[in-house]
């Protein structure tokens, strides 16, 4: 049975606006009950009220700052205890303008807390239950910048590279035991993230509308893809890249250093 065929509750982080709120709309229209998480309770309640009215699904909200461990614990508890949650959508994330030179250690730590620690802890909270139930899905919103250190996006790119690797590793370990893991790699998408990180989205070329991004990501979800890159025209380019990486693996365990390093 596909994930979609089972109408389970979806817990979405960062659901007060942008990509998360759009996923909430799409999953509600597919008949899923929702649990929406973000810091701004009024905005969450606005999204929830509209979706309850338009679709009739049950929508709960959890007001939480996922960089704060007490708030994170509330969401972890719900993920552990609520057996109806069958899809965890780790979407909450922030960008930071500029590279390593201009960002402070505190700003970098904050980005790690949201983009890495929260996503990891929430997944860890749900995995034992998914394994016990023999099913469940985790969708992690990464970014194409995970593949592009050349863009000089500092910690933001590095956090998204973590999300990509983490999702692939989860799939390798848990995929055969009923846990579906998808990493979605959007490119520039028209949301508030740009303004929040001090950039004008209108200065960027090739910006996707958020509805198109989420609908494409859901096509990948319905196909049970592990990696979904909505803007990439030729999927073979990703396959070639991934195959080249895998071809290296058997050569990496050696008793001796490669010839070029032998003094
Ligand atoms: N837009 C793009 O161009 C783009 C491209 C690639 C990847 N992405 C990724 O897509 C995801 C969603 O981004 P978006 O563009 O939709 O951004 P967005 O419009 O800024 O929305 C971010 C969401 O996360 C929530 N959030 C932010 N900080 C939070 C915190 N500390 N605790 C809990 N919730 C928090 C925000 O709500 P509150 O303010 O109410 O907390 C909001 O609901 C992110 O992971 C982002 O990195 C975006």
From TrEMBL:
Q: So which domain of life are we looking at?
A: Bacteria
**What keyword terms does UniProt attach to this protein?**
Oxidoreductase
Offer an example of a GO molecular function term for this protein.
3-hydroxypropionate dehydrogenase (NADP+) activity
EC numbers: 1.1.1.298, 1.1.1.381
SUPFAM superfamilies recorded:
NAD(P)-binding Rossmann-fold domains
User: Catalyses which reaction?
Assistant: 3-hydroxypropanoate + NADP(+) = 3-oxopropanoate + NADPH + H(+); L-allo-threonine + NADP(+) = aminoacetone + CO2 + NADPH
Q: What class of enzyme is it?
A: oxidoreductase
Name the job this protein performs. Answer: NADP-dependent dehydrogenase with broad substrate specificity acting on 3-hydroxy acids. Catalyzes the NADP-dependent oxidation of L-allo-threonine to L-2-amino-3-keto-butyrate, which is spontaneously decarboxylated into aminoacetone. Also acts on D-threonine, L-serine, D-serine, D-3-hydroxyisobutyrate, L-3-hydroxyisobutyrate, D-glycerate and L-glycerate. Able to catalyze the reduction of the malonic semialdehyde to 3-hydroxypropionic acid.
Per the record, the similarity remark reads: Belongs to the short-chain dehydrogenases/reductases (SDR) family.
The protein, known as? NADP-dependent 3-hydroxy acid dehydrogenase YdfG
> Organism source for this protein?
Herminiimonas fonticola
């Amino acid at each position: 049975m596909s994930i979609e065929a089972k109408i389970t509750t979806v817990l979405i982080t960062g659901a007060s606006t942008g990509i998360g709120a759009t996923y909430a709309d799409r999953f509600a229209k597919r008949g899923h009950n929702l649990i929406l998480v973000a810091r701004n309770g009024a905005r969450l309640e606005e999204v929830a009220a509209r979706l309850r009215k338009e679709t009739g699904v049950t929508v709960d909200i959890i007001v939480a700052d996922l960089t704060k461990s007490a708030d994170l614990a509330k969401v972890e508890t719900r993920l552990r205890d609520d057996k109806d949650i069958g899809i965890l959508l780790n979407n909450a994330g922030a960008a930071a303008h500029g590279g390593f030179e201009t960002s402070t250690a505190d700003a970098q730590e904050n980005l790690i807390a949201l983009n890495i620690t929260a996503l990891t802890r929430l997944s860890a909270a749900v995995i034992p239950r998914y394994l016990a139930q023999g099913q469940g899905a985790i969708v992690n919103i990464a970014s194409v910048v995970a593949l592009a250190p050349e863009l000089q996006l500092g910690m933001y790119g590095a956090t998204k590279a973590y999300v990509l690797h983490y999702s692939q590793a989860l799939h390798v370990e848990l995929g055969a035991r009923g846990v579906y893991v998808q990493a979605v790699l959007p490119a520039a998408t028209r949301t508030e993230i740009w303004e929040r990180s001090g950039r004008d989205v209108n200065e960027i070329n090739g910006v996707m509308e958020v509805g198109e991004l989420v609908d494409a990501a859901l096509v990948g979800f319905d196909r049970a893809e592990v990696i979904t890159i909505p803007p990439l025209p030729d999927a073979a380019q990703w396959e070639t890249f991934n195959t080249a990486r895998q071809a290296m693996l058997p050569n990496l365990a050696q008793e001796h250093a490669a010839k070029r390093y032998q003094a």
